Amino acid sequence: MIIGGALVATLIAAALVEVDDEPELHVPESLQSGRTVQDRTNKTESNAAQLDVSKLGQRKFSPLAGELFASTNWVQKRVVIDDPEEEAIKMARAARALAPPAPTAPPLQFKYAGKAIADNETWVFLSQSGENLITKIGGKINDTYRLDSINDTAITMTYLPLNIKQTLTINNQIAGTFR
After folding, report:
1. What is the DSSP letter of 32?
2. Model's pTM, two decimal places?
């Protein structure tokens, strides 16, 4: 009942409203006092006369510029080889130029702290990043380095992943030698 009453009231209100075919336009007085329609058309005609279309550049279109469904192929085109030996030499040169450099061992991060000789074995004391390490000749350090030899001026170690020998110089003024 309520919805039906609301519908009837809406229809009656719609019938009572006057329908106006031409809507009113309210133009501010500041715009009305300016120019007339004839003045505006004269100005646009003079602007068109001043514009020289021939000075504008012509567009150049590529026939493939707007191709939405152009075919793309990721496979490289086959190259016809006239001289296979010459091509092999060129390929070898290019491969050498692109080859990565030979791997090298990182610089030694150890500091010599001293050595001790006991029962005909030489023990070496090293430090690395605040960690103290003790090893003997033939012993491994962190499964990365092996101590090969020691003398009064240098320690020879092997970087095991690449089997590269490295030398750590000993400065006896800093470290003590124990016998």
Report:
1. H
2. 0.43
130 dihedral zone (left: phi>0; alpha: psi -120 to 50; beta): left
**Which residues neighbour 167 within 8 Å (Cβ) at sequence distance 6 or greater?**
154, 155, 156, 157
Reference 112, options 74, 87, 141, 86; nearest CA is 141
Please give the C-alpha separations between residue 2 and each of 9, 13, 15, 16, in angstroms, as whole numbers. 11, 17, 20, 21
Tallying the residues shown for the chain, one arrives at 179
Sheet holding 145-150, edge to edge: 140-141, 145-150, 154-159, 164-169
Chain segment 107-139, per-residue pLDDT in tens: 988 998 888 888 888 889 999 888 999 999 899
